[in-house]
Design brief:
The protein is α/β, with parallel strands linked by helices. The strands form two sheets. The protein has a seven-stranded parallel β-sheet, sandwiched between helices. A three-stranded parallel β-sheet has the order 1-2-3, with helices on one face. Helix 7 packs across helix 9. The longest helix is centred in the last third of the chain and has 21 residues. The radius of gyration is 18 Å and the shape is globular. The two termini are about 20 Å apart. InterPro entries: Amidohydro-rel (IPR006680), Metal_Hydrolase (IPR032466), Metallo-dep_Hydrolase (IPR051781). This is Amidohydrolase family protein.
């Protein structure tokens, strides 16, 4: 099975407020173990998290080896104060604060830096975003500082201008990447950026009744068309579901994401090889100086007893 290249272990795929309340005063070890058990049941042994503000990812990194899972995390994401990202991390106001947060990630044993460059889609209206993205020069500086510290960059980013700027600035992976254009795709190809499109975050909303179906279909069709273009151009792609997001369950979310890729390109060896290639780049880049080692078999929890 492929690795899950974008997850949020602190979320449950059902109710955001419920998930936050569960971990708010004390990390719920039981919830983390249940999520890891779901991954192991499906043969998923690599999980790259997007971080959180509640120390859940930090705790999860300590117990993941018990499930035979290579778990990579930024510990928390970093966002500009007053902009989207509070739910997954810490805010900076000046670049010195940002530098301090990058160093904090390293001190906590984080494997990479996750930066929040844009807002999120407004599902009620195709083409709408929740806020304006960071400026290109700011994006370049954030990525440069992280790279100076020897850390790869996972970039949460949507919108053509912001995605293009992030790719050209050397972001190691683009997460989501909705509403992009061919110039963005060319930039990702040129720079060897891995794109993790998290298609299932929209795909699993279809028919749920929470958002206008017509708008969801437009968003989903646009995302699939862009992924198809990226496929034709030879952009590095990897499977990540944003597991924990609404209607995207841990373990099953990756299965659903892979099915969307299969619907687009057929379940072929070429598809499997292309996704494995993108994932292998993430494996190589998104780890700190330490080398992850699987614990001895005697410490790996039996999935049946842990679920």
């Amino acid at each position: 099975m492929f690795g899950e290249c974008h997850a949020h272990i602190f979320l449950n795929g059902r109710n955001y407020k419920e998930a936050v309340a569960l971990h708010k005063n004390h990390v719920s070890e039981e919830a983390i173990r249940q999520a890891f058990a779901e991954y192991r049941k499906r043969g998923i042994t690599f999980v790259r998290d997007g971080g959180d503000a509640l120390h859940v990812s930090e705790y999860a990194s300590k117990i993941a080896p018990q499930y035979g899972i290579d778990y990579r995390s930024p510990m928390f994401a970093i966002h500009r104060k007053g902009h989207y990202g509070r739910i997954v991390g810490c805010a900076w106001e000046g670049l010195e604060e940002y530098r301090d947060l990058v160093k904090k990630v390293k001190d906590l044993g984080g494997d990479f830096i996750k930066i929040m460059i844009s807002g999120i889609m407004v599902y009620e209206q195709f083409g709408q975003m929740s806020e304006e993205p960071l400026a290109p020069e700011e994006i370049r500086e954030l990525i440069h500082i992280a790279h100076e510290e020897g850390m790869a960059v996972m970039a949460h980013v949507n919108g053509a201008d912001a995605v293009r700027a992030a790719a050209l600035a050397g972001a190691d992976s683009i997460e989501h990447g909705n509403y992009i254009d061919r110039d963005c795709i060319d930039a990702m190809k040129e720079k060897g950026t891995v794109w993790v499109p998290t298609l299932v975050t929209t795909g699993n909303l279809l028919g749920c009744g929470r958002y206008p179906q017509e708008e969801l279909e437009k968003i989903f069709d646009s995302a699939r068309a862009n992924v198809s273009c990226a496929w034709e151009k030879g952009v590095l792609l990897a499977a990540g579901s944003d597991a924990g997001a609404y209607r995207v369950l841990h373990g099953q979310g990756l299965v659903d994401e892979y099915q969307i890729f299969c619907d687009l390109f057929g379940e072929t060896e070429e598809l499997k090889n292309r996704l494995k290639e993108g994932e292998s780049v993430i494996h190589r880049k998104f780890q700190a100086e330490k080398v992850w080692k699987l614990t001895s078999k005697s410490t790996i929890i039996d999935a049946a007893s842990a679920s």
